[in-house]
Structures are given as structure tokens and as C-alpha cells.
Amino acid sequence: MDFTRDILPLKNILFRTALRITMNREESEDIVQDTLLKLWERRTEMSKINNLEAFAISAVRNLALDRLALHQNKVISLNEDLHDTEDNHPSAYDNIINNERTNRIHNLINQLPEKQRTAIQLRDIEGKSYKEIADIMGISESDVKINIYRGRDFLKKNCKNL
Amino acid sequence: MNYDYIEQLIDRYFSCQTSLQEEQILRSFFNGNDVPGHLMQYVELFQYEDEAKQESLGSDFDERILSIVNEKKNVVLQPHHRFTPFFRAAAIVAIVLTIGSAADKALSDKSSHSVENSIEINPYIRQADIQNTIRIKDVSQAEARPQVDSLIVQPAENNLQ
Fold first, then answer.
1. How far apart are CA A143 and CA A131, in angstroms?
2. In B, which residues are within 8 Å of A32 by CB distance?
């Protein structure tokens, strides 16, 4: 297993997943770095894993959720800010999304509960199958569909108001 | 233009019945220029899905993580670190062998010394032992041939007297 060839290319999908959960760029970058280094340290075991990407996303999600639990107070205050959608200014982590309306979609997705926004992230942005998402999130395929259905329904209702 | 197919796909998308390919068709459609007014409300959603995938880490991240990995690699690959366990094992084996052979030599010296001493100090005892052995041998041979017992024993008794 080679770091540059097999592990480093996972950085962006891992970063987007972590970012969707923590909503903090620095924290997400830190999580991705920790995860990639752990994968490299345990490369002998990793070479036996069929789907390294799914394994890595799952590891990143767990780590991000752990960090969220540690910084619970920060998240609560961040969520309070996000609920105020009327005058929502682009946050520090919105470097790429410059369009104001897509930025509002970004904020709408980030208002969803974690399971819904991670499932939507993995399906609609990363293009993963329901089976892969179920494996990554450790839930059943039907639970994945329920989470995505609820998330999309919320977005659909709010799209009409944009 | 007929948008029934797209409208049908949108309905199926929101009820989680579309395949990954159909979802890609929707994204391509909403990124094009043929979106009618009544579907404009979904443009941002599907455009966002494409845009969000561009979010990525910069080259500074690569440089930083590669320097950490290379640092760890160098530590692992340094010969004296890599072979330390072998050197230790070899040293232990060498010590054991040295002590073993020294102890063996010391013991063999001691035993050969004591035999030599016994020969030097008690030459008569040894001679007597040999004579006794010969006598015992004769006796055992005599036991095996009881008919000639008296012939062998008698001269011995005469000698003792």
C-alpha cells in the first residue's frame, strides 16, 4: 500500500464528509489528517479491507461525531445561528460556494439532523449507493432511505420559498 | 418541449425512487439552459449538488501530511532502528554461548583434575580396584560355571593367607 497512491486521494471526500458534520473547516482538516495517518499506520490491516474508501468515511464520521460531542456547546451556538436563515451570511467554511442562492441550499442542508445531512451528502453529492451509505453509517438501507426522504422533503418545501 | 420525463424524475427523486444515473440526469438538466419557469425552483438544489463536490483540501494539506508521513517513514527505515531487535537477539545468544562454553570448560577441567589427582595420590587404591575387578570378573565367570568353583576359589584363599 502506497500513501500517495492509495490513501491521500481519499482526502477530499473525507474532508467534505467531516465538514458536513462539524461545519468547521479547521476541525475537519484536522480530522482528515488524523484519519489518513491512522490508515497509513495500520496499512497492513487496511490492505485486507475491500472498500477502503467506505471504511475511511466511516472512521471520519465517527471521529467527527466524537469531536462534536466534545464541543457540544459550540455546536449548539452554531445551530442557533444557522436557524436564523433570513439574514444568513456566508460562513467561514463557504469558500467555494459563492452563489447566494446555492449558499442558502448549503445552509438548509446544514440545518438537517446529522443523519439526514450525512446521508444526503453521501447520496446527492458523493453519488454513493444506498448499500454503501448503510455500511458507512451502520444503519439499514431502509433507514438510509427514510433519512434521505426526510431531508429531501425539507429541502423541497424550502426550495419553493427561495 | 415536453418536460414530463423530468417532472416524473423529480417526483421519484423526492420519494427516493431514482437510481444514481437518473439523479445524474437531473443534475445535468438543471445545469443546462433549458429549464422552464415552473421547474426553476429546483435549479439551485441540483446546481448545489454539483458545486458542493468541488470542495477540496489545498496543496498545503498534501505538503504537511506528506512531510509527517516521510518523517515517520525515515524513523522506521533507519537501519539501526530496524535491526535493533536482531542485534539484541544475537547479543543474547552470544552471551549464552560464551557463558555455556566457559561453564562447560570449567566443569570438564575440574573433573579431569580430580581423576588425575586420584591416580597420583592413590595409585595403589586404583591398582587394588583393578585387581578387585579382575577378581569379581573371575567370580562371576565362576558362578556361570559352578563345576570349577573350588578350583578357582582355593588359590585365592591361599593367597590371602
1. 11
2. 57, 61
